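Figure 2 data, in text form.
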Amino acid sequence: MDFRIRGRVAFVAGGSKGMGRDAALALGAEGCKVLVVAREQGAIDAVVAEIKAAGGEAAGISADLCTQDGVAKALDTCNSLWSMPDIVVSQTNDTQFGKALSMDPAILEDTFRVLTMSAVYLAQATIPAMQARKWGRFVHIGSIAAREPERHFPHAAANVARPATSGFLKTLASEVAADGVTVNTIAPGWTLTPSLEMFFGKSGWTIDQGNEWLRKTIGVPAARAGTSEELGSTVAFLCSEQAGYITGTWIPVDGGNHASIM
């Protein structure tokens, strides 16, 4: 299927690894001009090279998107290369361990800055230009923990910050829908990113053994981890012309692990 976004400018936050990487690759394959933004320049350059090798157009920049200055720096680069972005993929990750009663408040503040304020800064800096053009796509890669707090690991800070991010994006979606701008959240479950592979490795498991743990202990109905390619293709669809009437949604990509009906 042609998603009809060829030539659109796509800004992919956290685009150097894992889910962000595959979102960048998927958008590049659809003919978007992709700006890969992350921290590690070497990993950024590798994704840019991969998009170009497949015939796409891409560039990359290292920036801290948890600050307004970092967002402005990256957008200046995007605008000087092409234009302000038509498409934004928002993703940051910060999972600090701590239980609710013993958690250092500084950890909660830092997690909120990384998981919530980064999305706020990016949306506030990019969506006005989309409104002016009467077309835009903002896709946030979040987590199923926004609706079902993580119980297997002590991630109290993330369990607080992720629902706040979802609340902001749901509010934003209703405010900009009439301007042709969609705002959606993808909620990945257990996905075979380098981080999950590292966790399996530290546990002494092969991928198959890790998938068996997901089936037996976590209860993932699909009995395996998802792939970041599966997530990337979902991002690309939500950025498409065909998805223009989908906004304000929270879409689990989790092999059926999200138990809630709504």
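Caption note: The domain at 9-191+228-253 is CATH 3.40.50.720 (Rossmann fold).
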